[in-house]
Specification:
Elements lengths: L5 H16 L8 H5 L2 E3 L20 E3 L20 E3 L20 E3 L20 E3 L20 E3 L20 E3 L20 E3 L20 E3 L20 E3 L20 E3 L20 E3 L10 H5 L2 H13 L2 E12 L6 H10 L14 E7 L4 E8 L9 H4 L7 E7 L8 H18 L4 E7 L6 H40 L4 H18 L9 E3 L8 H14 L2 E4 H16 L5 E2 H9 L4 H6 L2 H18 L14 E2 L3 H11 L4 H10 L5 H14 L1 E3 H8 L6 H13 L4 E6 L2 E5 L12 H4 L9 E9 L7 H8 L11 E4 L2 E5 L3 E10 L10 E10 L2 H22 L6 E5 L1 H4 L46 E3 L2 H4 L11 E4 L6 E4 L8 H7 L1 H7 L2 H13 L5 H8 L10 H12 L4 H12 L3 H7 L1
Parallel strand pairs: 1-2, 2-3, 3-4, 4-5, 5-6, 6-7, 7-8, 8-9, 9-10, 10-11, 11-12, 13-15, 13-16, 16-17, 17-18
Antiparallel strand pairs: 13-19, 14-15, 20-21, 22-24, 23-24, 25-29, 25-30, 26-27, 27-28, 28-29, 30-31, 32-33
This protein binds guanosine-5'-triphosphate and magnesium ion.
Length: 1054
């Protein structure tokens, strides 16, 4: 059954029926003649009527996203038509009637099924832009060579493998898209196109570029990514005008010296190749502004340095030539695994080269760090983590995201029972999931310990069982992605006719699933078996480590290596808990050549120090935060100091904490008990209690402050000032309290009438991202300010009152959708209630952004899925409300009429009983889409499809308002508050960035002004112009308001 997309259907009625109702020509109704632009895209129509020719003055016809396969003959009678958009339709042959549109300048026929273009097309003499990508062309349509006025030609995503000689007739062609075709050889005919400026040949199978390419003198942008180049095509180096070259996703292993002679090159893409070394001569490429290198195994410079940008790369190469280049390898080795699985023992045995099993009482808390210097060039930073649950929160702090870090997961071979499924999950599986979520690209290897206590025969059986379990584990993870993908693909099938915007959001979900599933590094195939009691197997493990380190040795300037050594010596010999800037300067510059010190200014020296510290922090030598102003000047070079504080604060031993508080001279016994209860039930540690817990470590007040800054920076806690002298820190990870009963009045379990609830659910399959929810809950605090009254926290949730809405965050296990034998999924929900949708969306979007950023920063490999829960379904239990029902049942094509303002629309609450199923889930990717111009839905209603009957709900319950809507809504306030100098500044900035034209700026200036300080008329016109621009206009407007310190106005349009 075909359902009509309601809003657009109404426009179609307007468009086609009125002319027919009107008297016959020549007495055409005025309105039709006034139409210049006809937008009938996504109207679910399969033909245009002959009567379209009555819109004599039409210049633009937009009819993309329909099911058209032919056009009425009468279309050729539209003399002024300049733009015709027929993208995403069902054309299999070129609509010949178009050839008579001799004034047409832009023709969009992309995303159809065309396999040929007729000769007659040459009549369209004025055609400048022709889009034909994503069609079924297998040979190059020679007819195109007759369109001599063409400036832009899009032929990407076809099956082309040739280009005729005659292509050179297109002398005006500037931009040529040929991506995703079947070119295996560079089409030589292109070399004669001397005026071509942009050429896109990415996603083909090219492996070479002929020397004749030098004929393309005008070429500025050249994309060749996703081809099959094994060596750098040196012929490109002679394209002297080239400004942008993309050779990403090929198999290049080096860059020739000649490439550094491309003087005009501004942007150079070599991501995802096999490049290990960049050339020092690159610092001479004077125009270079962007260098894309991710996805290579860089050793010179180290990848971390390369990612800091070109300036950092140049400074690195300068230091390399000024001092000496040294091959150096310092690998971070992380031992993880359950408590008492033998981590500390094997780590010590490895370093000492002799049996070193620990005493059983010697439990590791949080982490022990050691540096094991193997020889002059090879060293290891060893992190031996405590296995206890509560310390897992410390892992992201100490584990480096350096690509050549290593993780060993240890398990006790003597205790491991291959028959017991829970054993695999507990001792190995959960750890793998955890590490891969945090560092998807890291190498993981398994170590079975206690070999001396396990029977030789059973060891073999156990290891082969584990290998099998590893394989099953991998398949299970893959299956999760496959199932999600399949579910979404089914949804796409269902939604395709209704809502292109929703379909796009689902498509993005599929793409995201695909890329998430591909980023994980496989586990090292050999399982090490060792005994720390008699050293069996330790030598083999050591050899693996040394080989691993050798292979990853980076080229470092001697200055950097010496800096690392000096800091390391300070770590072992110095008495300081932390290093301050002066001390660092001394340690780093100590060994710098005199002339070099003279040459670099104070500013430059600071940058060089930051390069070095940033590298060392990334490698795991020190803990240092370059992005936090309060912490930049402190280096935590002795991680044990930080460990001690974490141990003290995150202790899982309430008795010991109570003793510490009681022993301290600061508190009475009673006070100590209150503080203790605060810590262990409410997760609150006061400033005083914090100092007391840190007392044994003899930290200075500045150091305690730095530690607290660090805890805040790591978002382990947020700060609350209850009254002036009473500063306290709330640690959600320590909270034990249950959800407070009084919350029921603030947030009743059923959504009250007249209230909407927007809900986002982020689902994590059967694994636990430790500390993710807690960090998210801490991050919300910055939006709430210091006033504690607005917030309530409990073990797995928090409630906050914001200005015009309320928010509830929860973390829970999904007990409902459990398959047998599977652990429940974890769901983090963000729910926002209120009466004003735009405020609610703002809060939801902000919280969503925070959660996504945390995942991106700390758990980039974490599998998750996200959904928006239909607000309509959420409120359907409210029977007494009298809102209009939007149930369409079996009556498609019935246009809906509503007089309600979309902003004020409430959830229609009267639905039939049989719709009482689980609520419809919309793709959460909708929240990622909103800033892409034109991606929001044009329709006013979206189908809520879970119920088996099609009912429509207002689109603003599912889609947040666009930035244009926000401007429109607050236009009066903006016009009243943007002052004259502010507007003039903005005009300059928008002109500079090329967002508005000189003419548009003049139009704004030419408006009358009634006030001397404020120019509401001018601002109004300016905003109208901006709303027609792509989303960059919004970004720039936000930047301008931020620069002008108008955060009040900024909030309005975010
Ligand atoms: N026989 C034998 N005992 C071992 C071996 N490795 C460790 N042990 C013993 O097992 C116990 C736990 O070892 P640890 O090295 O402390 O374990 P861990 O993983 O560091 O423990 P936590 O730090 O508490 O997480 C100690 O009593 C060790 O002596 C081994 O290879 N053989
Ligand atoms: Mg240990």
């Amino acid at each position: 059954m075909a359902y009509r997309q309601v809003a657009a259907g109404k426009e179609c009625l307007d468009l086609f029926h009125r002319p027919q109702l009107s008297p016959k020509p020549p007495n055409l109704p005025e309105t039709v003649l006034q139409w210049i632009k006809l937008d009938i895209s996504h109207a679910d129509i399969d033909r245009l009527p002959e009567s379209i020719a009555r819109c004599k003055n039409a210049k633009h016809i937009l009819a993309g996203g329909n099911r058209l396969s032919s056009l009425p003959q009468s279309i050729s009678n539209l003399p002024y038509l300049t733009v015709l958009d027929l993208y995403r339709n069902a054309f299999t042959t070129f609509p010949i009637a178009l050839c008579r549109l001799t004034n047409l300048e832009e023709l969009y026929l992309n995303n159809n099924k065309l396999s040929d273009i007729p000769k007659k097309i040459a009549k369209m003499k004025r055609l400048r832009k022709f889009m034909l990508d994503h069609n079924a062309l297998t040979t190059f349509p020679i007819a195109l060579c007759g369109l001599t006025n063409l400036e832009e030609l899009y032929l990407g995503d076809n099956q082309l493998s040739d280009i005729p000689e005659k292509i050179t007739r297109l002398v005006r062609l500037k931009k040529f898209w040929l991506y995703k075709n079947k070119y295996t050889k560079f089409p030589i005919a292109l070399c004669g196109m001397t005026n071509l400026e942009d050429l896109y040949l990415d996603k083909n199978q090219l492996s070479d570029i002929p020397t004749e390419i030098t004929g393309m003198k005008g070429l500025k942008i050249f994309w060749l990514s996703h081809n099959e180049f094994k060596t750098f095509p040196t012929a490109l180096c002679d394209l002297t005008n080239l400004e942008e070259l993309d050779l990403g996703d090929n198999q290049l292993s080096d860059i020739p010296l000649k490439a550094t002679t491309m003087e005009k090159l501004q942007s150079f893409g070599i991501s995802f190749n096999n490049i290990t070394h960049l050339l020092p001569q690159m610092k001479k490429m004077i125009s270079l502004r962007q260098l894309y290198v991710v996805g290579n195994r860089l050793l010179q410079p180290p990848m971390h340095t390369a990612k800091q940008g070109l300036d950092a790369i140049k400074r690195y190469f300068e230091a390399l030539t000024d001092t000496k280049a040294i091959q150096s390898s310092r690998i971070q080795v992380n031992f993880l695994g359950e408590t008492e699985s033998g981590k500390t023992s094997i780590s010590h045995s490895l370093q000492l080269g002799q049996p070193a099993s620990t005493e059983s009482a010697d439990r590791t808390r949080v982490v022990e760090q050691e540096t094991w210097v193997y020889d002059q060039d090879i060293a290891f930073n060893i992190n031996d983590f405590g296995g206890h649950e509560v310390y897992k929160i410390g892992h992201p702090i100490f584990m480096s995201k350096h690509t050549s870090s290593l993780v060993f997961i240890t398990f006790d071979l003597s205790k491991y029972d291959p028959e017991d499924k829970a054993h695999y999950q507990l001792y190995i599986g959960d750890w793998i999931d955890k590490v891969q979520a945090q560092m998807p690209g890291i190498q993981i290897a398994l170590i079975g310990t206690h070999l001396d206590e396990a029977e030789a025969l059973s060891v073999e059986t156990k290891c082969s069982a584990i290998k099998k379990q590893l394989e099953d584990h991998k398949n299970k993870n893959k299956k999760w992605y496959d199932i999600q993908k399949e579910t979404v693909e089914n949804k796409i099938q269902k939604t395709s006719d209704f809502s292109p915007a929703l379909r796009q959001a689902y498509q993005e979900k599929v793409d995201k699933m695909q890329s998430l599933s591909h980023q994980v590094q496989p586990i090292y195939e050999h399982i090490f078996r060792v005994s720390s009691e008699n050293m069996t197997g330790v030598e083999k493990l050591k050899k693996y480590l040394i080989d691993f380190a050798r292979e990853r040795a980076e080229v470092l300037p001697e200055l950097w290596v010496n800096a690392a050594k000096n800091i390391c010596t300070k770590k072992q010999e110095g008495s300081e808990n932390t290093l301050d800037w002066e001390m660092l300067q001394e340690l780093i510059m100590q060994s710098a050549p005199h002339a070099w010190r003279e040459r670099n200014s104070h500013e430059e020296t600071k940058k060089i120090m930051c390069d070095i510290l940033s590298f060392l922090a990334h490698r795991g030598d020190i803990i240092w935060f370059d992005k936090s102003p309060s912490l930049t000047k402190v280096v935590f070079h002795k991680q044990e100091v930080l460990e001690n504080v974490l141990k003290a604060v995150l202790s899982h031993d309430p008795e010991a904490v109570l003793q510490k508080l009681q022993v301290s001279m600061r508190f009475t016994r009673k006070k100590a008990r209150t503080l203790h209860a605060d810590i262990f039930t409410r997760g609150i540690i006061s400033r005083q209690a914090m100092s007391c817990l840190c007392e044994p470590f003899k930290l200075s007040t500045t150091e305690v402050d730095a530690m607290i800054d660090l805890l805040l920076k790591l978002e382990l806690c947020f700060q609350v000032q209850e009254h002036e002298s009473n500063l306290s820190f709330h640690f959600p990870c320590l909270l034990q309290e249950k959800r407070q009963p009084e919350l029921e009045t603030k947030w009743p379990s059923k959504v009250p009438p007249d209230i909407n609830q927007l809900t986002l659910q982020v689902i994590f399959p059967y694994r636990c991202p430790d500390g993710l929810y807690e960090k998210f809950s801490v991050r919300q605090h910055k939006h709430l300010g210091l006033l504690k009254t607005k917030r309530m926290d409990w073990r797995n949730g928090m409630y906050a009152e914001l200005e015009r809405c309320k928010m509830l965050l929860t973390q829970e296990r999904d007990q409902q959708n459990l398959s047998p034998g599977q652990d429940p999924d974890l769901i983090i929900s963000i729910a926002v209630r209120g009466q004003h949708l735009s405020d609610q969306w703002q809060v939801l979007k902000r919280a969503h952004g925070d959660l996504m950023n945390i995942i991106h920063e700390d758990w980039p490999g974490l599998p998750y899925d996200k959904y928006l829960v239909c607000p309509h379904c959420m409120s359907e239990d409210n029977k007494d409300s009298e809102h209009q029902t939007l149930l369409l049942e079996e009556t498609p094509n019935v246009p809906l009429t509503t007089t309600q303002d979309p902003e004020e629309v409430h959830v229609p609450t009267k639905r039939k009983r049989y719709t009482q199923k689980a609520p419809t889930l919309f793709p959460g990717e909708i929240l990622d889409q909103t800033n892409v111009p034109g991606s929001g839905p044009k329709e006013k209603w979206v189908p809520c499809v879970n119920t088996g009957v099609y009912s429509y709900i207002p689109v603003n319950l599912v889609y947040p308002p666009s930035w244009q809507d926000a401007i429109r809504k607050h236009k009066t306030e903006l016009c009243e508050n943007i002052t004259e100098p502010c507007l003039l500044d903005m005009l300059d900035k928008f002109l500079q960035e090329g967002i508005i034209t000189d003419r548009e700026a003049q139009t704004v200036r030419a408006q009358p002004s009634t006030d001397r300080v404020k120019w509401p008329e001018k601002v109004a016109v300016f905003l109208d112009i901006l709303m027609r621009k792509p989303s960059k206009a919004h970004v720039t407007l936000c930047q301008c308001l931020l620069e002008q310190e108008r955060t009040d106005l900024l909030e309005l349009i975010m």
